[in-house]
C-alpha cells in the first residue's frame, strides 16, 4: 500500500536533514547552474561574488543556505497544516521581492530542490516522492507569492 503523502515527505526529509548544509549546497550549486543571473543578487557588504564557487564557500552565504533548509524543515513539520505558516511565508516573500528576486525564479529553485532530493535519496526518490515534494513546494511558493501581491 502507498504511504500517505506527509509520511513520504517526512521520511525523505529525515535523510536530507542529517546534513542540511551539504545538501543545501547541492541545491544552490544547481540553482546557479540553471539560473546564473541570480548570483549578483547575493551581495554581502556590497561585495559581488566572482563565481558560484566563491559564493557557495562564503560564510554569509552558508548562513543563507542554513536558513533556507530551516524553512523547508518548518514546511515538512507543518506539512498537514501549512496555513499555520502563511504569514511567515508571505513575509519571506516580501523580503525576497525587496532584494530583487522575481517570483518566476522560484520555479528554478523548485527544480533545484527536486534535483537535490534525487541526488540525496537515489532510488528512494520515487515518482510518488517527487510528486509529494512538488505539491509541498508549490504550496510554499503560493504562500510566499503573497509577498509580491499588489506589484
From TrEMBL:
It is found in: Cytoplasm, Cytosol; Mitochondrion matrix. The keyword Cytoplasm applies. GO terms for biological process: cellular response to hypoxia; oxygen transport; response to hypoxia. Belongs to the globin family. InterPro entries: Globin (IPR000971), Globin-like_OT (IPR050532), Globin-like_sf (IPR009050), Globin/Proto (IPR012292). It catalyses: Fe(III)-heme b-[protein] + nitric oxide + H2O = Fe(II)-heme b-[protein] + nitrite + 2 H(+). GO terms for cellular component: cytosol; mitochondrial matrix. The keyword Translocase does not apply. Monomer. Homodimer and homotetramer; disulfide-linked. Mainly monomeric but also detected as part of homodimers and homotetramers. Interacts with 14-3-3 proteins; regulates the phosphorylation of NGB. Could interact (ferrous form) with G-alpha(i) proteins (GTP-bound form). Its main location: cytoplasm. Monomeric globin with a bis-histidyl six-coordinate heme-iron atom through which it can bind dioxygen, carbon monoxide and nitric oxide. Could help transport oxygen and increase its availability to the metabolically active neuronal tissues, though its low quantity in tissues as well as its high affinity for dioxygen, which may limit its oxygen-releasing ability, argue against it. The ferrous/deoxygenated form exhibits a nitrite reductase activity and it could produce nitric oxide which in turn inhibits cellular respiration in response to hypoxia. This is Neuroglobin. Pfam families: Globin (PF00042). Residues 1-149 form the Globin domain. It comes from Equus caballus. Keywords: Cytoplasm, Heme, Iron, Metal-binding, Mitochondrion, Oxidoreductase, Oxygen transport, Transport. One of its GO terms (molecular function) is heme binding.
